[in-house]
Design goal:
This protein is α+β, with helices and mostly antiparallel strands. The chain has one domain. The chain is built from four helices and six strands, in the order H-E-E-E-E-H-H-E-E-H. It has a six-stranded antiparallel sheet with strand order 1-2-3-4-6-5. Helix 3 packs antiparallel against helix 4. The N and C termini lie far apart (40 Å).
Length: 192
């Protein structure tokens, strides 16, 4: 049963706390439907960095899902699991940096540590892609993207975990902490 049905009082309290988190002004976060079948209880959020009037972001996006299963699946090492996704476009030169994936992963682990978001069974991937358009897509030129997928089991399902994820989404988009109202420049893009 997902958060809309509410099978667990502890889960409902954690979900309500997540709904009250305040994020930086240039990160639009909203609750979205949870994926079905992952756990008896779940709540999901989507984030977009400085979205346009249609809700699309040319800078970066992400997803955050809090899962609860009182049967404590072995892979989770507990009753709670967080699953996240964050991605952002990059300049092609940055996309070829051999340390890019390591840096992106360190942004997540640093954000969790700075907020005291203790966890177990942290796992994930950092994927960088570089592309070039051909034929009718040749005008798009070269492009690059970084994508981070991670999951972990929080010691307690506190707001520190979603706050760390939100920081990661902004960092990937080129907005470090304290950079509200600073322009983000991408090739061919106009300052926000």
């Amino acid at each position: 049963m997902n958060v809309d049905g509410g099978s667990s009082r502890g889960f409902e309290a954690a979900a309500e706390r997540l709904r009250t988190v305040t994020f930086r002004d240039d990160l639009a976060v909203r609750q979205i439907p949870s994926p079905a079948g992952l756990a008896p209880d779940s709540i999901a959020f989507a984030a977009d960095v400085r979205p346009d009037s249609h809700g699309d972001s040319p800078f970066g996006t992400g997803r955050f899902i809090l899962l609860h299963d009182p049967d404590e699946p072995d892979a989770w090492d507990g009753a709670w699991r967080i699953v996240t996704f964050a991605q952002a476009p990059l300049e092609p030169e940055i996309g070829t940096d051999p340390l890019l994936a390591d840096v992106a992963w360190s942004w997540l682990t640093d954000a969790l540590a700075e907020r005291g978001a203790s966890s177990r069974a942290l796992a994930g991937t950092a994927t960088k892609t570089v592309s070039r358009g051909f034929g009718s897509l040749a005008s798009q030129g070269d492009g690059a993207q970084i994508e981070l997928r991670a999951s972990w089991s929080p010691d307690t399902p506190s707001n520190a975990h979603i706050e760390a994820w939100a920081e990661l989404v902004c960092m990937l988009a080129g907005l470090p902490p304290g950079s509200e109202d600073i322009a983000v420049l991408r090739p061919g893009a106009h300052p926000a």
